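Researcher: If only I could read backbone structure tokens as easily as an amino acid sequence. Walk me, if you will, through where the backbone shape changes along the chain. I have put the entry right below:
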Amino acid sequence: MAERTLADQLGGTLPEGIEALEEHERQDLADALRDARRRQAKALAEAGEEGLKYVPALLRGAVRKAVGL
């Protein structure tokens, strides 16, 4: 899978301040943003699974499907 550019990740054109950065600095920023979003997604998934501990076992499958886990 090709890595998304910083502009793609932010959903449009880059602000002037970011455009003024050198290419390697923009790439570092894109990498940091991608890594942060991956960590956030992992944390949200873990929180969702943790929350399912309070749902009766017989209902967990249906609840997972309903909330998209």
In short: The chain is about 70% helix and 0% strand.
